[in-house]
Structure formats: structure tokens, C-alpha cells
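Dock flavin-adenine dinucleotide; give full complex structure.
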Amino acid sequence: MSRVDLKPADLGASGWNAILSPRPARAALDADIECDYLVIGAGFAGLSAARRLRQLEPGASIVILEAQAVAAGPAGRNSGFMIDLPHALASGSYQGDSSQDLRNIRMNRAAIAFAADAVREYGFAEESFDPCGKINAAAGRPGQQHNEDYAAHLDALGEPYEMLDAQAMRDVCGSDYYLGGLRTPGTAVIQPALYIRSLADALVTRAGCRLYEHSPVQALSRQGERWLASSATGSVSAQRVLLAVNGLIETFGFYRRRLMHINLYASMTRQLTAAEVDTLGGVASWGFTPSDPIGSTLRRIDGSGGPRLVIRNRCTYEAALSLPPDRLRQIARDHRRTFDARFPMLAHVEMEYCWSGRLCLSRNDVWALGELEQGLFSACCQNGLGTTRGTIAGIVAAEMASGVDADSLIPDFEAQVRPRRLFPEPFMSLGARGAIKLKEWRAGPDL
Ligand SMILES: Cc1cc2nc3c(=O)[nH]c(=O)nc-3n(C[C@H](O)[C@H](O)[C@H](O)COP(=O)(O)OP(=O)(O)OC[C@H]3O[C@@H](n4cnc5c(N)ncnc54)[C@H](O)[C@@H]3O)c2cc1C
């Protein structure tokens, strides 16, 4: 029996979710029910797993339990870059081990295609998913150097890209802050909360899954050939269970002291007026990832909620799964400063939302993915790129859990070694925090 120790999680309301029309959450679990497959967690991994299970087994009964409202967690809090190219957050650059890169690119693209297929099949709104590519923006000399190194790496991989100079960057974003950029075409940019809401709802209305929100699993135990998951108000008895809770898999008793919990932070402006949009200039929507991985992610959006800018920077390492409640105050000041440096013409525009969200890394950049015990599968630890890698994890775990003999959608996936052990405390926290601080300091204007 594993008793799940639930933690308070993310701070602040995600702007992505708040600017959409309110969505009534589906009812909480309030009975003792049975199913073939139980998916715990309705983020990228859980929802992708449910969709893949449905494709493999049209007649199976599938239940999804989500602790919060759909899209209230990290899946609805991220910057929305579904990136196809290497993106190793734990390394000093976006380049991983180049022998792995081509395989990773194929897996990432299979995940993006899986998402695009759901968007098409279920008819999601256009702004939920835009396969428009992205720009690695460089504001300082180290950022420029990262882009030059990245370009050489892309040349070696035979991947297309375009270098942008300062004027071209200004034409896109209206700011003369950037020295240059590197545009790649394969990223899909999503409205994360809209994509996740749409996928969750379509899995219920179009694919016949049962979804219960505000239903945190508090205990999970094996009962003969089946598994029993209990919430405060009901239980699910399932033949197979997929844990798609990312770093919170530790609370189920697995991978303890092997996962690093990182918090990221974002702020979104209020809706810009027509005059402010004119003053800003540039194009109506764009997405910048930082050329220095520790730097700022920026997006300009122009869908539900009108024209706005979104900035993401700063990250913190937490040994525990919770955050000090006053953390956002300091982060909001950093966001203001870094935003104003880029957009001085909008220095009077308030940030309407500021929020945090968790992601999970392993020291050796592997997933916590596979069969944990008979009939119990993990689809966790997405190593930063959770929109894409969470989708891969969900697909792979579903294919493992299902007995159906079918071609894998992710044929490049290889069985994972275990995430490497963390160093003992306090060395782990001191080391991780020191490394983050050093990288943030080195990033200079790219932060
Ligand atoms: C500010 C920010 C920016 C980011 N930007 C990007 C980006 O641009 N691109 C990118 O790829 N990634 C980005 N990420 C990371 C990305 O959001 C995560 O990696 C991704 O959400 C992980 O997906 P997941 O499905 O594995 O887990 P999650 O999205 O965390 O979903 C897990 C779900 O499980 C639920 N859960 C947990 N415990 C229980 C329980 N006991 N019972 C029931 N349900 C439970 C949680 O409530 C949660 O909804 C960003 C993250 C943040 C915070």
C-alpha cells in the first residue's frame, strides 16, 4: 500500500488558463468503480496515454483521475513550446549527446505529430496549436555564441534554420533589445491551457474515457491481480494503472531521491490596447526561446484574451515539493525588470498574472518510465521539455501497458536506465542552487 502524501503545489493563477472562458470542472470521483485502465494525472503524459490506449483498445474502459481542475497544474502553466530539436535543460547548452540527437528529434516529431493529429481529429480551436516554429533569441554576446554553436550543430545534423540579425528581430518583436536570433521551423507553439482542456474534454466526449477532476489519489495498493486507487470520496479498481504525475511520483513512494524538482515562473501582461500594439510594432504573434537555456522565454499572443506578452525566467531548485508563499513577490520584480529592459515602451503596462509551476529533471536526463510492478506503469520525469517528452512518455507507457500487438508510434524509444541518485542534502540543494545562480549571472542580458 502506498499512501500518497499530497503537497501544496504551484503558486498564482496561470494566465493561460485565466484568459480563457471559464470551464466547469467535471465531477469528482464519488463512488467505487472499476475499469481496465486507470490513468493518474491529466497533464501531457496522462492525456496522451489515455488517447493512445483508446487507439489501441477501442473497447477498453479508461478512467482518468486528476487531483486539481484540468489545466490548473504545470500542463496549463508552461510556455507552450513543443520543441522538436535537442533541448537538454540540465546541460549548459541546447545540445545533448549528438549520438542521441537524431533519435530524440524523431521521437519529438512523432509526439508533435500525435498532438497535431488530436487537434485535427477532435477539431481544437486554431490558437491551441500552431506549428509555426520558434526563434532562439540572443540579447548578449554569450547568447550569440550559443546560437553560433547551435547553428554548427544543426549543420552537422542536416537540420534547417535561419539566422536573424538585430533588425530582423526588431521586425518580429518591435524591440531593439536583441542582437540576433536563430529560427527553426519544427516547433509547435501551443496555448497550453487550451490544448490540455481541449484534449481532456475530447477524450471524454469523443473517446469515451471517464475523467474525474479534483480527485487526488491518496492511496494506491495491489489487490490480487488488480490495483486499487482511493481518493477521499471514492475508489477505482483497475487492471492496469499508469502514473502520469511527473515529479509527484515521489509521493507514491517511487524514485525517491532520484528526481530534481525545479520551479519555473512566468508573468503575463494585461491585454494591450490598440495604441500600445501600434507603439510596440512587430508581428501579432511570435515565440522566443532563449539562446542561453537559462534565459528568458517570451511570447506575444493574440487569441482569447487579446494581445498580450508573456515572459518566463528565473528557476529555483526545491528539495521539498512546496514553495515559500512569498516567492512570487520577488519573482514578479525580476519579471518587471527583465520585461522593461526589452519593452521600455510598455513599462507602464501591468502584469496581470504571475505564477509558478514545477518540472522534473533527472541527473542523467532519462525518463522515469516503465513497468514499476506488475500492472503498474510510470510515465514521469520529462526533463524540462514536458509538452513533447510528456507526450512521448504517455504514448510509450500506454503501449507498454496494453497487451495489443501494434507498431509503436515511438519506435526510437529505448528502455531507460534508472534516474541517477541525487547527492545527499544539503550538498544537492547547495550545488543545484549554486549552479543555477552561476548560470543566471553568466546569462547577463539574456536573462
Ligand atoms: C513556467 C513554465 C514554463 C514551461 N515551459 C515549457 C515549454 O515551453 N515547453 C515544454 O515542453 N515544457 C515546458 N514546461 C514544463 C512542462 O510544463 C512540464 O514538463 C509538463 O507539464 C509535464 O507534463 P506531465 O504530464 O508529465 O506532468 P504535469 O503537467 O505536471 O501533470 C501531472 C498531473 O498529475 C496530477 N497529479 C499529481 N498527483 C496526483 C494524484 N495524487 N492524484 C491525481 N492526480 C495527480 C497533477 O495535478 C497534474 O495535473 C514549463 C513549465 C513551467 C512551470
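Observed: The chain has a mean pLDDT of 94.
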